[in-house]
Specification:
By secondary structure, the chain is mainly alpha-helical. It contains four helices and two strands. It folds into two domains: about 1-50, no CATH class; about 55-105, no CATH class. The chain has helices at about 20-30, 40-50, 60-70, 85-105; strands at about 1-5, 10. A hairpin with a 5-residue loop joins strand 1 (about 1-5) and strand 2 (about 10).
Amino acid sequence: MGVSSADDAAAPIASLPGAVRDHVARRLSIPADRQETFANLERVYARRAAITKHGPSFVPMCAALAKDYAEMGVSYAELSLYNVVEAGTLAAIHRDLPAIDARRAA
């Protein structure tokens, strides 16, 4: 995953200065200790879209979610995904998610 620059060249998030990464993380976060308005949720979701709706990021995000959930002791989760009906995403689900699930179960 990366961040798009003005010249449209991708910059890996890990290569950004720490203060910039922290700022990006804050702008993409929803605090767990309070309620948010629908308008604020829409802003956060719009900011996340560049990452979450980026096709090549789909499988790595699923793997990261599975790893995080496994570390928390979660054995089952359902995700609401907007684009599972798109051909590329559906193919990735059938191709890669069984292996992710097998790693989680191991």
